Automatic annotation (TrEMBL):
Pfam family, one: GAF_2
SUPFAM superfamilies xref list: GAF domain-like, Homeodomain-like, P-loop containing nucleoside triphosphate hydrolases
Gene3D superfamilies: 1.10.8.60, 3.30.450.40, Homeodomain-like, P-loop containing nucleotide triphosphate hydrolases
Species of origin: Pedobacter miscanthi
The keyword Nucleotide-binding appears for this protein: yes
Extent of the signal sequence: none
Domain Sigma-54 factor interaction residue range list: 249-478
Top-level taxon in the UniProt lineage: Bacteria
Keyword ATP-binding part of the UniProt annotation: yes
Name assigned to this protein: Fis family transcriptional regulator
GO biological process, one term: regulation of DNA-templated transcription
Record's keyword terms, sorted: ATP-binding, DNA-binding, Nucleotide-binding, Transcription, Transcription regulation
Length: 562
């Protein structure tokens, strides 16, 4: 806007004649109109500024209303990209957020189109976590106002940051950085590549974006805590309903004393434990005992059965997934590794883990980090691993069915549980324990077992181990007509010295398995599923038993003749 004196000079020049002179009347007219004209110009300019500010306020208000309803990161990203394009004609370079430890700035959102398709250098730098002490980020976080970095000036100062070099190679003159904060607390940074910027407008945008991201992060944490609490609650109920607890480890023989010694030696550490043992020997009980005796006992132990889930679901169970990561992923899921943070993860039947997942498992065990399926964020976890298997993993490695590097990573501290046939001195105390338990559970007043029945139990080979003994005692209590168990319905007894020799000579594994299943079905009077059924005695799901019976050609006539 021209001052009054300058406006007068402009008018005199405008109204001068061809000789450059003007008469007194013109001068008088100009002097009379210059002051009003100056006021009019000032008013026009003021109105333009007011309209500009009103437009900016209206824009910020609209933007605030748009993002007030935003609850998800994807929706916020779309809103930010739209507003930057509409008002400033630019794209979002990068938003980073400070991690929970306050040490690293993690990528939160960026526009991959910023530097054109295929710009691998941008993607590489954009995906990296950087320390909050990084020179450019630290300057931004320390300033109350946004900071404009002039590339040439920064180079002249000797700033050799890789970001300065990258911006220069990309052809930019300036970079804009602003701290994202709510109140006095920093929680991230926003970066734009732009030469001319409306600072007032951009400060307002940063304030709105800060609040929106802060709310989304808070909502995500609340959702994560809620999901973790729900799952932990489920696991705790499972533990309460479980068959065993630490005080219920029964066995005083030499074989179990060695197990107790190994447990005591490893419990106080965070060392990975691999528990070997046949089905039904109580591997989960030992795992829980090690966890309960460890410094991690205030945290939960999460169990996953690698044999109980289809291969395509195990990865999601272990590592979790993001919403939309695959068909059916309708919401984000937290995996077992993340849930077990600070505690213990029990990987039961680890020998059943598919080969393609063994590579990812190895990485987690080595680096203690992973990504959810469909996610970009790398998550770090502090988890103790206890694995269990009824397979000989060394043999599996030789057969190419299990990775040798994963086996050596798991087999740091092996504990081998003896089968029940090798600890016959523990059959009697285990039997009396189960009699007490199931007498209370069923309400049937059975409190003892006859010497003959006990002798039968002690001479049985127990292919199903402790689980088989437990189920047999429960069934015997239900069938008992007095306070003493007089007899037990065992499968056909195979002499101990014949096991693996005369009885099995010339027989295939399928023939031996078929014989054992038929004997179990006979002892259960043909009952397959439910309490005291053959599936429960064998320790396998009824569906698995049906599949085995079909495969082995076992019909009703084999175990329940008409």
């Amino acid at each position: 806007m021209l001052p009054n004196a300058d406006l007068k000079k402009f008018a005199l020049v405008l109204f001068a004649d061809e000789t450059g002179t003007f008469d007194d009347r013109v001068v008088e007219i100009i002097e009379r109109i210059s002051s009003p004209l100056s006021g009019i110009v000032r008013n026009i300019s003021s109105n333009e500024n007011i309209q500009k500010k009103e437009k900016e306020k209206a824009f910020l208000l609209d933007f605030a209303e748009d993002i007030a309803a935003v609850r998800k990161k994807d929706d916020l990203e779309a809103s930010i990209s739209s507003v930057l394009d509409r008002m400033l004609g630019i794209r979002l370079s990068m938003i980073r957020v400070i991690d929970d430890a306050g040490e690293l700035l993690e990528p939160y959102m960026y526009d991959e189109r910023m530097f054109g398709n295929g710009n691998e250098e941008f993607k590489k730098q954009a995906s990296q976590k950087i320390p909050v002490s990084e020179v450019l980020s630290a300057r931004v976080l320390q300033q109350k106002e946004p900071v404009i970095f002039n590339i040439v000036e920064e180079e002249a100062k000797g700033n050799n940051s890789p970001y300065i070099k990258f911006w220069k190679n990309a052809g930019f003159s300036n970079a804009f950085g602003a701290a994202l904060r709510v109140g006095n607390k920093n929680f991230g940074t926003l970066w734009l590549m732009i030469d001319d910027i409306n600072m007032t407008l951009l400060k307002g945008l940063c304030a709105q974006i800060s609040i929106a991201i802060s709310n989304i992060l808070a909502n995500e944490k609340i959702w994560n805590y809620k999901q973790k609490l729900e799952i932990e609650n489920t696991h705790l109920h499972e533990q309460i309903r479980g068959l065993y607890n630490f005080s219920e480890i029964i066995g005083e023989g030499a074989a179990m004393q060695n197990v107790y010694h190994m447990m005591s030696a490893v419990s106080d550490s965070a060392t990975t434990v691999l528990i070997h043992g046949e089905t039904g020997t109580g591997k989960e009980l030992i795992a829980r005992a090690v966890h309960n005796a460890s410094p991690r006992n205030k945290k939960i132990m999460i169990k996953i059965n690698c044999a109980a889930l289809p291969p395509h679901l195990i990865e999601s169970e272990l590592f979790g997934h993001e919403k939309g990561a695959f068909t059916g992923a309708y919401e984000k899921r937290i995996g077992k590794f993340e849930l077990a943070h600070g505690g213990t993860l029990f990987l039961d039947e680890i020998g059943e883990l598919p080969l393609e997942l063994q590579v990812k498992m190895l990485r987690v065990l080595q680096e203690r980090e992973f990504e959810r399926i469909g996610g970009k964020e790398t998550l770090k976890v502090d988890v103790r691993i206890i694995a269990a298997t009824n397979r000989n993993l060394a043999v599996e490695v030789g057969a190419g069915k299990f990775r040798s590097d994963l086996f050596y990573r798991l087999n740091v501290f092996p504990i081998t549980l003896p089968p029940l046939r090798d600890r016959r001195e523990d059959v009697e105390p285990l039997t009396r324990f189960f009699i007490t338990r199931y007498s209370k559970k069923t309400g049937i007043g059975v409190n003892s077992i006859s010497p003959k029945a006990l002798s039968d139990l002690e001479n049985y080979s127990w292919p199903g181990n402790i689980r088989e003994l437990e189920h047999l005692i429960e069934r015997s209590i239900l069938l008992s007509s007095s306070s003493t168990i007089q007899s037990v319905h065992l499968p056909k007894v195979i002499p101990e010295d014949a096991i693996g020799h005369e009885v099995y000579m010339g027989q295939t594994l399928e023939e031996i398995e078929r014989f054992h299943i038929i004997e179990m079905l006979k002892s259960c009077k043909g009952k397959i599923s439910g309490p005291t059924g053959a599936a429960e005695v064998l320790g396998i799901p009824p569906s698995t038993l049906h599949s085995k019976m079909k495969k082995l050609g076992i019909t009703r006539a084999d175990y329940f003749p008409v």
